[in-house]
Amino acid sequence: MVWTPLHAKIHRTIRSRHLFERNQRLLIAVSGGQDSLCLIKLLLDLQPKWGWHLGIAHCDHRWRSDSQANANHVENLAKTWGISFYLETANKPINSEAAARDWRYQALSAIAQANNYQYIVTGHTASDRAETLLYNLIRGTGADGLQALTWQRPLTTGIMLVRPLLEITRIQTEQFCQEFKLPIWEDSTNQDLQYARNRIRQELLPYLRDNFNPQVESALAQTAELLQAEVEYLETAAQQLREKAMEMGMAHGAWGIGDKEDSFTLLPLRLNRRVLQKAPLALQRRVMRQVLHQILTDAASFEHIEKLTALIIAPNRSQTDPFPGGAIAQVEGDWICLK
After folding, report:
1. Nearest 5°: CA angle at 85, between 81 and 86?
2. Where are the beta strands (DSSP E) in 61-107?
3. For residue 200, which of 56, 224, 238, 323 sits 20 to 30 Å off, Cα-Cα?
4. What is the DSSP secondary-structure string of 142-191?
5. 262 burial type by CB count under 10 A (0-12 exposed, 13-18 middle, 19+ buried)
6. Model confidence over 235-253: pLDDT tens digits?
7. pLDDT digits (tens, 9 = 90+) for 56-103
């Protein structure tokens, strides 16, 4: 086996970030494109050092005429490498990127659960991280959206989603595939400029590379990395502040909300304004977003959060117009009451 600098880098990354332990079962999502082929080749080569059991999963969205041939191509690769192959095919073609992503993660989770894999591993790169940051920045988002592609996150109970290639660019995965003559399956939808992400990939990033910074993808990926740590810190601090503001509400006999994972909320709930007034604006906004996360079916907008945050220093009896679903927030002395 040829041991390249990329092998060494990924080996170090997995160890230093504690992405996987030894002898665990890893389900690799393989589309057949350069990033996923680079990923599976690296993990296969590292397998003797770690003792992993590897499997390949492929999701056929049925939105290309060659999708069946693509699935067969990946299955043949799995046979060549002597590892388990799992295929999930959509019942009907999925047309939106968001719907496709949701379906894909559900399909991968189901395969992992049925076959006792602890990890689902994807080939997202620094280039994907840069694209996600730009995509969310253009749409208008806070730090949470800018750091959206993280190294790992729980998908369902007992299954972790892991992205070991987040410090590797797409140019590097392409060079790796060429070096090892890996048979890349070119996905024609990646060239379709009706998708915003493809325009960012094909037009915006090359323009930024040529005119501003040749290493723009790595620079943006590093920004996402910095933001990730800051977002985690702020979320924890906001949760503690929210619990403190609501503990006082509980002490005064109000209903409250549970952890963020709870699927329902009992209204009314009360937040102590005196507790919140001492906090920085960044934490006030996060507390209000966490509260709204409990009572809204969709993500809270900037306007929703600002509307609720304004009540922290608003005059007595001030109130908001109804939020989606009908809840109203009102100032009652030292309290913000949602009902």
Report:
1. 165
2. 84-89
3. 56
4. -HHHHT-S-SEEEEETTEEEE-TTTTS-HHHHHHHHHHTT------GGGG
5. exposed
6. 999 999 999 998 765 545 4
7. 999 998 878 888 899 999 999 999 999 999 999 988 877 777 888 889
